[in-house]
Structure formats: structure tokens, C-alpha cells
Protein 1
Amino acid sequence: MRIGIDEAGRGALIGPMIVAGVVISDSKLKFLKGIGVKDSKQLTRERREKLFDIIASTVDAFTVVKVFPYEIDNYNLNDLTYDAVSKIILSLSIFNPEIVTVDKVGEEKPVIELIRKLGYKSNVVHKADVLFVEASAASIIAKVIRDNYIDELKKVYGDFGSGYPADPRTIKWLKSFYEKNPNPPPIIRRSWKILRSTAPLYYISKEGRRLW
């Protein structure tokens, strides 16, 4: 048995970060690889959603942790990521995995220490979602759940694109929103520096103070 963990939305300006973990036996990894399970960023949305159902029915279990914008505004993002990953490892530890694979985003010391303390082999590496099928499966779970969550937000706030700062539709929506309403909606990570150039008159610090 092995655990694979990855996230979606870590660098987004809008919406939550979703961290997902799957636990799966080695005998099923070849099947997932054979049907095209790989890093979610390399797949279309339609393909991810089809694979989601197959992954969900193939793995022994999966779990997710949502990290919302207000949390990201008030705490260190790496620490929040490590905490979410640790929660997933502990929740799946009942399966007594041999290996825990995690897509590395920082030093990851708390995560590595927890894995070793539990007696598992630590496989915490950069681009784990590309290199290891168990992390790829987790990346698909995380991405599909975030995409669906974003769809629900758009029903309330309109189409803001992907929610990432590199998306022109997201920036256009943000500027349009602030022209009509100086109060940032709760779906925005108010501490993101991109807001300083996008909506300088209404940029809000993570302490809730208006800076301009």
C-alpha cells in the first residue's frame, strides 16, 4: 500500500486550495497508469472528470482538505500546506502504507518527520505528480474537486476565469468587481500582492487594513 498526495489551487488568487490524498495498493498502480492517469495539468477537464470516477472506484480510499482564502490570508501558505498534508497522512494511516509520496512545495520538514515517525518510507519530491502515479491520481482528485467548487462560486460571483493571477479573464473580472464594490468578496485571497497593481485603491492587507 502507498499514499499519494498533491494539491490544486495553491497559487490561485480566487478560491480554496484543495489538498487530496489517495491510498492504493501497488497492484493497482499499473492499471491507473495504463488508463492514462498522469499529472492533472496534462489532461483536459473532460478527461480529468472521467478519470476521477475510475480513480475513486479503484483506490482503497481518498480524502481531501480544503484551505480557504481567509486561512491563507492569516497564516503562512507553506505551513497550511504541510498541515493539510499531515492531516491526510494521519487519516489514511489506518491502511498502514509502506510509502508516502508527496509533491514537494517547500522544505516539508514537518511532513517528512511525521512520515518517518509513523514508520513509513518518505518519498517527498518535486514534481511527484508527474513522476509517480499515486501522486498523479491525487492531483486529479484535487483538481476536479476544485474545478467543481469554482463552478459553484461562479454562479454567485460571475465568470472570473480560472481564478489564477496569470489569467486575463480573472484580472479583468477583479478590476470590474472593484469598480462597483470596494469591499473584497470572501473568495479572494486579499493578501496576494497582485491586488496592489490590480485594485490599488482598495487593496486590503491580511490584517484587514486598507492600504490605499
Protein 2
Amino acid sequence: MVRDAQQFVRGRHLYSYVNPDGSKDSSLEQWFSQLEGTAAPILRKIVANARQAKRPSLTAAEKEIWDAFLYQQWRRVPDLYASLLAPEAHKAEVEHLLDELSTLGRPVSNWERSQLLEPVSLKRMRQNVRVSSLTTGSEMVLSALGRRGLAVAKLANPRKSFILGSRPVVKCTLPGITDLSDPRVELWLPISYDVMAGIGRLDEREILVPLNDQQVRLQNEAAAAQSTQIVGRSRELVQSLSRFVGTKAIFSPMEATSGAPDFSGEAV
């Protein structure tokens, strides 16, 4: 599923900057490809150990690469950007800026306005804004991920499996609690059909989390709810989740104690 995730979130020139002459700068595409190649053996290590009910025992360098991979898988996908800036909102923002320029700067001709508001122009501008935002990262977020341990969840039931959504990283929060430094906030990414990994505790480097059938279903419903597309191991699984796609449900896949996600538990 690791390779599937990489392909699923990527389209043709999805991360290329479009220059004024129409040429494309694929530097970000190449950087993502390098990160995926570096992270791949680490993800395989996590999966292999989880299937033997073992912690992966990542080195500090491997954990840092995993944190970077998780962070990018979380923020790079178009579904997330669409939730932050929909095409309609982007067009309204461009119109507002043109109005502001006409009022405070120089008059904007009807021809200029029509050229900038053409669908092709808007699409190019929105693409470039997204790519530009992805060329820089948040040291604060990476620092928060670095302070958290690694949590690995392995399916207990071999008949079950995780789906992959077009927005693959699921963030689970409680009302008003969204800071990644708070141990009650979870991030989860399926890295195989039977293993997912995410952020763990502040006081323990690695933990293994058992999942029952209900928790697996909640995770899959969550992934479907925040995504516009999903894929899975079976047609029946995808069909059973199709009604949740795009519903933006709020949930936590983990059993909670005292109203907070529970990271306790021994290996499956």
C-alpha cells in the first residue's frame, strides 16, 4: 500500500510549478520522489516488525525521515488543499485583489480582468500557490512530530483491511484540541493493508496498538469521510464505505478512556 499511496495522491505534474510561458518546473516532484525512495525501506521495516508483533526500533535518523514522510503525506494531497482553498474561494480572492488594486493602485482594464479570471489562468494560479506553499515546511509541526513517539497499529482480524483515501492521513482530535503536541491528538496513515502508523506518546519512543474490528471500521469511515476517492482490497469493502465518501465525519478510530484517545495496550 505504500507505493499505492504514492501513486494515488499523485497526478500528472501535480506538484510542478507552471511558468508564464507554460513550461513546468518539476523540482518539487523530484524532491517528493527522493523522499519516498528514502522512506520506503523504513515503512517496510515498520510493516515487517508489526506483523511479528514487534516494535520497529527505528534509529533517530529513521524516525526523522518517517516524521518528514508522514508530514508530507498529510499536507501534500489536493483534497486537503481543496478543503483549505476551494476553486470558488480562490476565484473570489482573485476578484477581491483586482478590485483592491483598482481602488488603491491603478485601474484594471476589462481585458486584464477577463484574462486573469479565465478558468485556465485561475487553475494555473491556484496550482502555483499550492506548489509554492509546499516548497516550505513548518519547523513547528516537524518539531511537534519529533517530540512524539511512533505508534504502530496492526489488524487483529486477518479478514479485515484498511482502505486508502485520496486524503490518506487521518487526524483525530477532541473538540478544541488540535495541537500535535497534545497526546490526545492522533495522526494515522495506512502503510499496508494491515498496518498503519502514526504519532504516539510523548514519553515512549514506540508503541504497538491493537485494533478490534470496530476500530478498523471507524478508521476506514474516517478516511472515506475526508476523501473524494477511496481504494481497497475488495469491491465489497469499497462499496460498504461509498456512502461515507466526502461526508467530513468527525471521529477517532481509537477506543477512548476518560474522553481521550487511548494509546495504551500491548502488541497484537
Protein 3
Amino acid sequence: MALVEFDALTMRYGTEAMRPVLDGVTGRIMPGEFLVVLGRSGSGKSTLLNLLAGLDRPTSGSVRFDGESLFELPDAALTRLRRRRIGIVFQSYNLVPTLTVAENLRLPLGLNGLEERTAVKEWLERVGLSGYEAAWPEQLSGGEQQRVAVARALIHAPELILADEPTGNLDLDNARRVVELLDDLCRAEGRTLVMVTHSREVAGRADRLLTIERGRLVDVAG
């Protein structure tokens, strides 16, 4: 059974006459797979990811998460589902600048009523940042901030990880390190990983590729 199924997703901004950002996209994501969404800038990749996360609502179409229709849920229930079962890694890191590294990692634990115990230290060790608990985001390099963001996305053990061009602001070495980290951690944890990218090199690590052009799904490989 698919973890996520999306059917005829269409997303329009502005008037009906404007070309939709997404135009009738349909697919499924299986548990434990690493799926890469490829496409040029403006093709609709990030819009698809936002819909899969329930951050936006489509003009038409549906998304089912573990058999449950996201857009038929009340807002509070959708927020709980996203908070508990989905982890998101953004291109711009989105760390809270007024919180230390440890406090940023505690956020999803606190929101989900989970005890910290040794989770923060364990996850910082796993992403190669042991001893950084008291550091502020502004004191970290871009690669270090993104590794903190990866730890924050996985620390509460969500089933689905959505990564929106997580290497877009990084140099080549840090980009490779972050992709390898996400891939290795998700496979070790048995998580499902969906990554938006325009990089064919990143796509080489995926179990399956989904290519979008001008809002339409044009190719599924793998």
C-alpha cells in the first residue's frame, strides 16, 4: 500500500486564463523509498511538495496520506498529522535564529509531547555536530545549518521526509554531504524520502525519479 497517493493535482494562481503551476499530476509514493522530483525552476516541483505536506490546498485534486484524505481533514487535524508524521527540510534552513541549536532540535519534540532524554545529543552526533548544542544558527556555516535542519526534521521519527532543494544554498562538497546524510539516515531509519532537486547527480542516489515540466508529469523512472 502506498504511503502517499496524489490524484489529478492542479494548482492555479490568479485567473483561470493563466497556465496552472501544476496541471493534473497523479502518482504514488511507497513506504521506505527515496523519490527524487526533477524539473527546472518554475516547473511546479516545490508546489507539489507543499501540497504533499498539506501546507497549501490545491485548486483541484487530492492527496491521501496513509489512506487519509489530507484536504478533507479539519485544519487542526491536518496540523497534527503534519507535525507528527511529516518532517520538512527547506532550502533556506528555516532555523529559528533566536534559539540555540539544541533548542531548535527540541521544537518538534515539544510540539509532539515527546521526552528529550538524550535525543538532541544523539542526533547532533549522527549529523556530525557533537558539542554544538549551545551554538546559535548565525555562528554556523551553511552546511552546518542544513545538517541541523536535517536532524530537526528526523528527530521526532516522522514517516515521510520532504526535502525542498536542500542543497540549493550549499557549495558542492556540503551539498554532497547533506544528500548523503539524508539518504543514509532515512534508509537506516526506514523513512520515506521525497527530495525536490534539479541535480542529476543527486537523482543518481534515488530509487525512483519523477520529472515535471511546465506543471505536468512527463516521466517516471525506476
Protein 4
Amino acid sequence: MNQKTSNLPMIGGILAAVGPLVLLLLGISGSWIGNLTAFEPYRPVFVLFVVLLFSYSGWKIYRPVEECKPDTACAVPATQQRRKVIFWLSALTALILVTSNYWILWFA
């Protein structure tokens, strides 16, 4: 598997978690953002999608080194460590964004 396809699940998870925040940062609000409430019933599906993508990424990152072909990125210890750090930072960011509906009111 090449480098681009191995990063695809992590990139997909990040985009799915950050998408609503990006809309707000772009100034998309008011009456138009009210139309997005139509997606609220599908929130569990989107959360499941994020969890599945991160689960697949975690499985790919934490698989045994023996499964990696020699001279590939996953066989290099420095690359493995960097991917693990990026994975956990991304997963923490996704967790914060996915659960924000429950705790954001405490700061308002």
C-alpha cells in the first residue's frame, strides 16, 4: 500500500470532525446554518464514520512491524513514532469536536 492510501483514513477522520468548525470559521452562520439542523438526525452516523476511520487508522499504525515490507515508511521507527503522535493528536481533536455539543454550553 502506498503512502497516500495509508494516510487516507486519518485524513478522512480529521475532515469529518473538523468540517462543522470550518463552516463557522468561514462565517457561514445565520439563517443558512439553520438549514444544517436537517443533518442532526444523521449525527450518530457521522460520529460512527469518524470512529471507524480512526479505528482503521489505529489498526494500520499499531500493526506489528513484521507485517511491513523492508524499506517502506512503516518499517522506519522514526516514521512510526511520528505517525503515532499525529494519530493521537488527531484523535484527541476529533474527540473534542465530536463531543463539543455536550460541554460547550458550560463555557457560554
